[in-house]
Amino acid sequence: MPELPEVETIARGVNERVRGDRIVHAWFDGHREPFKTPAAKQAKGLEGRVLLSVHRTGKHVVCELGSDARQRKENAPPPAPPNAQWIVHLGMTGRLLVTTPEAPVAAHTHARLGLASGRELRFVDPRRFGRLEFRDLGRDQPFTASGADPLTIAQEPFAALFRDRRLSIKAALLNQTLLSGVGNIYADESLFHAGIRPRRSAGRLTKSELERLRLALRQVLEHAIRLGGSSVSDYVDADGVRGFFQLEHCVYLRTGLPCRRCQTAIRRILLAGRGTHFCPSCQR
After folding, report:
1. What residues act catalytically?
2. Please, is 211 exposed, middle or buried when counting C-beta atoms within 10 Å of its C-beta (0-12, 13-18, 19+)?
3. CATH homologous superfamily of domain 4-136?
4. Mind listing the pLDDT tens digit for each residue in 248-260?
5. What is the DSSP string of 180-228?
6. Residues 108, 121, 58, CA angle at the centre, nearest 5°?
7. CA-based end-to-end distance of the chain
8. For residues 56 and 96, what is the distance between their CA atoms, to the nearest angstrom?
9. Count of beta carbons in the 10 Å neighbourhood of residue 40
10. Alpha-carbon distance 189 to 28, whole Å?
11. H-type alpha helices, 37-119
């Protein structure tokens, strides 16, 4: 499943290419699984709207929609705030691509938004675990993530998330109600860089260990974003290009290979229902 760096990369790429464009028509296929909002309601709500901006919230891509794309001029009133949102969750294999109408339509394409510029925004998802949702902000609340953002959370709020929790620190990192966007790849990589074993109880970590983890988590996520995310399965960015961070993984999917720091063989265990990778020497 795409995690925070992959979703952030996609959101930035889509925003760069379609910000200010108007949705002329919207097509959705007949599969019900991807549609948290019925397809007909999405099409009606999207057509004619302007893509004011596209950003990441947790593991979701959020398109802020409005009715006017004009830029603010000197002494002119500020532009109206968004009046709707289109929310994309990529699931396990979802892709959000910016292309042209002439480009071949991939199998399992569930949505095509035709834009005034001549581009198309397409949602492709072979396994149909992704979700598409439309919110009219005149009636609905704006979308928010269930947990804190690991890129911006401060030291004390981060430590407070894990205080008195008996579950393992790996399981805590995967809990989206605590931190939004962290999945298996970046939990393993961040724990390695912080020197913390994944089995350790979250509530027993010291203040200094938690701060080391917070900083490692942010550093790993930011570096992964710079490299376009990790392409270990189906993930590609808004242009269909694979990421490169998987080339720098220190533990994830490196079972039996030598640690990049100490040469000890990387181990894999099952923890919180997920394959978990760590160095038995570097992580304590």
Report:
1. 2-3, 59, 274
2. middle
3. MutM-like, N-terminal (3.20.190.10)
4. 999 999 999 999 9
5. SS--HHHHHHHHHHHT--TTSBGGG--HHHHHHHHHHHHHHHHHHHHTT
6. 85
7. 28
8. 13
9. 11
10. 37
11. 39-46
How far, in Å, CA of 62 to CA of 276, rounded?
Answer: 30
pTM, entire model: 0.91
What's the gap between Cα 56 and its chain centre? Answer: 6
Residue with tokens 């959000």: 96
CB 68 within 8 Å of CB 79:
yes
Look up residue 201 and give its amino acid.
S
CATH number (1.10.10.2840, 3.90.770.10, 1.10.8.50, 3.40.630.30) of 155-278 reads 1.10.8.50
Element (H, E) at 251: none
DSSP H or E stretch at residue 18: helix 4-18
Q: Alpha-carbon torsion 100, 25, 112, 236, what sign? A: positive
205-247 residue pLDDT tens: 999 999 999 999 999 999 999 998 887 666 666 677 777 788 8
